[in-house]
């Protein structure tokens, strides 16, 4: 059995709470590691936190000013010296584009061969898969992500999300919510098959727990309809009925639903409220408007019509909630007037996973300091499948 297979077997057999302890032992035995540390990215994607026992006393590391942070941002292994003859390898722990954190492994320099580096990079990815499974049975990895306590509404919203990023050959998605520790009603969801990607952006009205409960009902109603195999117009109609039955029109959820045909780039859209779509194609950034229909739950038995457009390889689609585009500067100018397009253009060289944070940072510099609305940005880079016509 190779060293890699021995570590893989050990991780798969580990108790959910004991993954890092098992990794330390296995990497010491099979690769001569002096030390192993798992760092989880916090909810704001600003710091990396060691997975330790509660209460936590280990210091967090900045994503922006440390070698581990550089590995997290670049999604490439990085190394640093840790004393005479000792190297620390910082390896991205990422699952299908979703950046969970960093695995830091201290090795004697003579052990850090190219083969060992490749093995450890694969082990970091394997550890990520095991963490996602383990989180069903333990809280320690979620606890390590927290700079401070989440509000109850934020706890509900983060648990509702599919992930913060996802990559396939045809597309890459990145998403972020702010304020990460006190979000209200903004949310996003996606699911794919061999033929289609379904993406929804939702914004439940109200604040705090009431908005979170409303969004939770909407997202699960949409998922229930989607998993029944119906199209997005019927998904919207069924979710609308569920919300109206629960609130009789006194509460509603603004929603943008999209279904992407992976082979052709044809997109079906139902615009049921306020989320906006902006497209960055070549050097042009522009909003793509749709015919607005009633938000989900506003009226009884609403019917929804599908619209269509086309995405081309190289297109970047950026979805924003009203907490982004309707935010105002201290002088009263809405963010969507000019600043939003500038922020999207300025992030043009970043990967999809980094774009939402960049747009939200620009928003934070722009808007009134007293603004407290939650803000959502989702970025989708379309790669396409094969050669698509531009007609």
UniProtKB/TrEMBL annotation:
Q: Which SMART domains does its entry note?
A: PP2C_SIG
Xref: SUPFAM superfamilies = PP2C-like (SSF81606)
Among InterPro entries, the record links this protein to: Bact_Sigma-Reg, PPM-type-like_dom_sf, PPM-type_phosphatase-like_dom
Which UniProt keywords are present, listed alphabetically? Hydrolase
Gene3D superfamilies hit by this protein: PPM-type phosphatase domain (3.60.40.10)
Start and end residues of each PPM-type phosphatase domain: 168-382
- What is the protein named? Phosphatase
Organism field: Streptomyces cirratus
